[in-house]
Specification:
The complex is a heterodimer of chains A (110) and B (119). By secondary structure, chain A is mainly β. In chain A, 0% of the residues lie in helices and 43% in strands. Chain A contains no helices and nine strands. In chain A, a hairpin with a 5-residue loop joins β7 and β8. Chain A is globular, with a radius of gyration of 13 Å. The mean pLDDT of chain A is 97. Chain B is mostly beta strands and 119 residues long. The mean pLDDT of chain B is 97. Classes of the chains: A mainly beta (110), B mainly beta (119). At the A-B interface, β3, β7 and β8 of A face β5 and β10 of B.
Chain lengths: 110, 119
């Protein structure tokens, strides 16, 4: 159950597009189409942004999109806004009724 | 309104026990899988445990296996986490979360309850 690998931080300017990476193995990301992404503002509960690799829950802006290639998943935010500044976590089903999260990426909007 | 409210956190000595509760409202509790996820101070999210909608199947992270027990009470619409043999590294905010039956994500989260293990 090793954590998925995410860059510690990324930054971007308002209006820009930014992509977060999340790297796992063939036992988790590469083995299942069950990657989800969560946004967490400081002191708040996580919020689901993407599920099943690329599906967006109702109420989540279409500026958020997800994809996967082999053992790496990606979250893209287009038209960056100040309120997007938060921590972002990827999560994957890892088989045998287990889940694994990434270490999280802090997004700074410049 | 769909809501999950955790309680039961607090300060406990190493080796001690604590039971967390998560009260669910606004949805059919018995139709969803339920999860516990924790977050250590200044750290990332870590999956702890999951229980299926009918309680028939439970799973745990290796770090808590044999020490923690997840359970649910359909009549009370409540999820529990019994934590025994607590260690300093169990110190965290514990979140309960809901997930659609048969899918593998958490779509609604509570605000969390804080557990501190220290002498």
């Amino acid at each position: 159950q090793s954590a998925l690998t995410q860059p510690a931080s990324v930054s971007g300017s308002p209006g820009q597009s930014i992509t977060f990476s999340c790297t796992g193995t063939s036992s988790d990301i590469g083995g299942y189409n069950y990657v989800s992404w969560y946004q967490q503002h400081p002191g708040k509960a996580p919020k689901l942004m993407i599920y099943d690799v690329s599906k967006r829950p109702s109420g989540v802006s279409n500026r958020f999109s997800g994809s996967k290639s082999d053992n790496t998943a990606s979250l893209t935010i287009s038209g960056l806004q100040a309120d997007d500044e938060a921590d972002y976590y990827c999560c994957s089903y890892a088989g045998s009724s287990e889940w694994v999260f990434g270490g999280g990426t802090t997004l700074t909007v410049l | 309104e769909v809501q999950l409210v955790e309680s039961g956190g607090g300060l406990v000595q190493p080796g001690g026990s604590l039971r967390l509760s998560c009260a669910a409202s606004g949805f059919t509790f018995s139709s969803y899988w339920m999860y516990w996820v924790r977050q250590g101070p200044g750290k990332g999210l870590v999956w702890v445990s999951r229980i299926k909608s009918d309680g028939s199947s439970r799973s745990y992270a290796d770090s808590v296996k044999g020490r923690f027990t997840i359970s649910r009470d359909k009549a009370k619409n409540t999820l529990y986490l019994q934590m025994n043999s607590l260690r300093a590294e169990d110190t965290a905010v514990y979140y309960c979360a809901r997930g659609p039956r048969g899918d593998y994500y958490m779509d609604v989260w509570g605000k969390g309850t804080t557990v501190t293990v220290s002498s």
